[in-house]
Design goal:
The protein has 180 residues and is mainly beta. It is 13% helix and 46% strand.
């Protein structure tokens, strides 16, 4: 009889622990291929490249994901002889994804705030999700950056080898974002 009581107690306790997750926890949309790398070049209003290393060292460049309020880890990379900021955009939360009836295509968004020298540039990164219709193909799905919305305009980043590239022509509140 004691064994049954102990077993029932263990089952009840494990049920309580398993059901105590937060509904608002972040659960990213997963895929076998993830193309969420973003490279950003920044020029001043005369078209001259700004010093990315100096901006980063002086905390004059940052990217924050709006919902999670998480700061992106940013690196400075040399891409085709241009110094660019490099970071990975958080994937959309699975709860916010919208799918077609067969779940072979979907879309989701992530809100970002890019801060350059105290100027906040709010943007929305649009992702697309696709999966192979071939049932014999294993792991054939992909989530990728489709476009970036800023100042009521959609910008389609240049994509090279899975890296999304954009250019920011920095001019304070009148900054412009365009493909690289």
């Amino acid at each position: 009889m004691n064994i049954h009581k102990t077993l029932i107690s263990i089952l009840l306790v494990s049920t309580v622990f398993c059901s105590c997750t937060k509904d608002d926890e972040y659960s990213p949309q997963i895929a076998s291929t993830i193309l969420n790398s973003l490279f950003v070049s920044i020029t001043d209003n005369q078209g001259k490249s700004m010093n990315n290393i100096e901006l980063l060292d002086n905390n004059e460049f940052s990217v924050i994901e709006k919902n999670l309020k998480r700061k992106a880890k940013i690196d400075v990379v040399d891409y085709e002889n241009v110094k660019m900021f490099s970071f990975s955009v958080d994937l959309p939360d699975i709860k916010s994804m919208k799918f077609n009836e067969t779940k072979t295509e979907g879309s989701g968004t992530v809100g970002l705030v890019m801060n350059i020298k105290g100027t906040k540039l709010p943007m929305i990164v649009n992702f697309s999700f696709t999966t192979s219709k071939d049932a014999n193909m294993c792991g054939g799905n992909c989530i990728r950056i489709k476009s970036i919305e800023y100042a009521n305009k959609a910008v389609y980043p240049t994509e090279e080898m899975g890296i999304n590239l954009i250019k920011v022509k920095y001019n304070g509140k009148n900054s412009v974002i365009e493909p690289w």
